[in-house]
């Protein structure tokens, strides 16, 4: 049957929009909508005539699960940008990022504790009476200087210790660090590390809290030793 | 107020099946699902059935978006028709009795709150004019025609539902619907012609 030429076309379109065209009759009409462009055209015309505005009052929020179900069943992830395709992607990203962060932490924090950098003793600093000895050790990459005291040596509350490099051939002492204890590791800038060579000396002075106010030793030098590399 | 131009744009983007189609479809869902759920709830009476209708309807919308006619002026009406037809199928398969559930308010000639006949300045001029013509023309119908059309549209009553509800022979009800639709179409078309 050709619906497009039917004298009942408007009545059928009207009943389709009204909702009283049911069952097999509706399915036949829907097939005609696909197959006969004139039928679809006529229906669109009547849709324009019978276009009431729906009241906002009837709105109801659907359950959030409904969208998730549609998303899953219709496999919508296939129609998203590649980077945004799946919750799985973001989960994997989160896991990878967390793993990466933990790895960096392990390298920076744990590994030095498990595998301390190999240190080489370069000087023994001694007091005048030889009663106290402080071992100075340098890492192979010459970036870390470790001071190791056989027993704890702590500065008083109004004092700091200051470690000095006395360069080979004289010259002004170069401050390497202001310390509260003599059992520490110090990161050395390259320029300072270059000065730690045979013939230079390391010394520790007692300074006011916070270090020498002048940039040169102002208090008594309590420990001194020669560098041997 | 739902914007038909925006709805049309989202339906077309959904039908393109590109990498932005899922986002367009989701935006379409967020925009229209609350109203369409309200339409479905009016027809099937129970929320869980209405959600089932909404689910099936959006599945159909996803699959049919590519064949949506972009010249259509009423994309929301296209979606509403999908929802309504799915609701009728669900009603038929679930043996849901809605006739008994209707109360006095549902008999109202204005669709029992389904429609908003007030003027909305956000609507286009033509849409405003068409809605006004429809409202005015409904008022000119005979009371039985108007009531039959309103009950059928707003509450999804079939011919036989209407016959039972109005306690009239099936043939009488079908006649009211046929004449009511023809009179309504003729009236609105005349008003539209007069407005040009």
In short:
The complex is a heterodimer of chains A (229) and B (196). Chain A has 229 residues and is α+β, with helices and mostly antiparallel strands.
* Helix percentage range of chain B: 55-70%
User: Structural class of chain B, please?
Assistant: mainly alpha
Name the CATH superfamily assignment of the largest domain in chain B. Answer: Winged helix-like DNA-binding domain superfamily/Winged helix DNA-binding domain
Q: Helix-strand pattern of chain B, N to C?
A: HHHHHHHH
Rounded Rg of chain B: 18 Å
Number of strands of chain B: 0
CATH fold title of the largest domain in chain A: Immunoglobulin-like
What is the percent of helical residues of chain A?
Answer: 25-40%
CATH architecture of the largest domain in chain B: Orthogonal Bundle
Q: How many helices of chain B does DSSP assign?
A: 8
Topology at a glance:
The complex is a heterodimer of chains A (229) and B (196).
Chain A: H1 9-18, H2 23-35, H3 37-49, H4 64-73, H5 87-114, E1 119-126, E2 133-139, E3 144-148, E4 159-166, E5 174-179, E6 185-187, H6 190-194, E7 201-208, E8 221-226
Antiparallel strand pairs in A: 1-2, 2-3, 3-6, 4-5, 4-7, 7-8
Helix pairs in contact in A: 1-3, 2-3
Chain B: H1 4-15, H2 21-44, H3 47-64, H4 75-94, H5 125-140, H6 143-155, H7 159-166, H8 170-195
Helix pairs in contact in B: 1-2, 2-3, 2-4, 3-4, 5-8, 6-8, 7-8
């Amino acid at each position: 049957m050709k619906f497009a030429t039917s004298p009942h076309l408007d009545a059928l379109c009207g009943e389709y929009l009204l909702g009283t065209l049911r069952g097999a009759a509706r399915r036949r009409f829907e097939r005609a909508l696909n197959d006969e462009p004139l039928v679809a055209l006529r229906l669109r015309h009547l849709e324009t005539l019978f276009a009431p505005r729906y009241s906002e009052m009837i709105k109801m929020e659907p359950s959030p699960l409904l969208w998730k179900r549609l998303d899953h069943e219709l496999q919508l992830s296939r129609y998203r940008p590649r980077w945004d395709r799946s919750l799985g992607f973001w989960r994997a990203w989160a896991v990878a990022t967390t793993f990466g962060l933990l790895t960096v932490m392990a390298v920076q924090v744990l590994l030095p504790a498990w595998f301390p950098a190999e240190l080489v003793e370069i000087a023994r600093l001694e007091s005048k009476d030889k009663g106290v000895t402080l071992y100075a050790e340098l890492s192979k990459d010459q970036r870390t200087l470790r001071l190791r005291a056989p027993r704890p040596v702590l500065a008083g509350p109004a004092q700091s210790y200051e470690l000095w490099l006395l360069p080979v051939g004289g010259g002004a002492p170069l401050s390497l660090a202001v310390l509260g204890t003599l059992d520490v590791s110090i990161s050395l800038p390259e320029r300072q590390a270059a000065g730690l060579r045979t013939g230079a000396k390391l010394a520790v002075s007692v300074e006011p809290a916070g270090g020498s106010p002048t940039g040169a030793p102002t208090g008594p030098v309590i420990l001194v030793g020669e560098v041997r590399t | 107020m739902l914007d038909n131009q925006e709805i049309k744009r989202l339906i077309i983007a959904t039908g393109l099946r590109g990498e932005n189609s899922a986002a367009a479809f989701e935006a379409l869902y967020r925009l229209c699902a609350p109203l369409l759920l309200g339409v479905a709830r009016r027809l099937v009476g129970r929320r869980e059935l209405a959600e089932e209708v909404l689910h099936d309807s959006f599945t159909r919308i996803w699959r049919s978006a590519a064949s949506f006619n972009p010249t259509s002026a009423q994309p929301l009406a296209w979606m509403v028709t999908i929802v309504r037809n799915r609701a009728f199928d669900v009603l038929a398969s679930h043996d849901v009795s809605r006739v008994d559930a209707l109360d006095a308010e549902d008999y109202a000639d204005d669709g029992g709150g389904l429609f908003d006949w007030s003027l909305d300045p956000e609507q286009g001029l033509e849409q405003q004019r068409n809605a006004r013509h429809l409202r005015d023309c409904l008022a000119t119908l005979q009371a039985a025609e108007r009531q039959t059309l309103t009950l059928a549209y707003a509450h999804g009553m079939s011919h036989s539902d209407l016959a039972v509800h109005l306690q009239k022979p099936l043939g009488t009800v079908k006649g009211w619907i046929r004449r009511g639709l023809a009179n309504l179409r003729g009236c609105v078309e005349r008003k539209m012609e007069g407005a040009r």
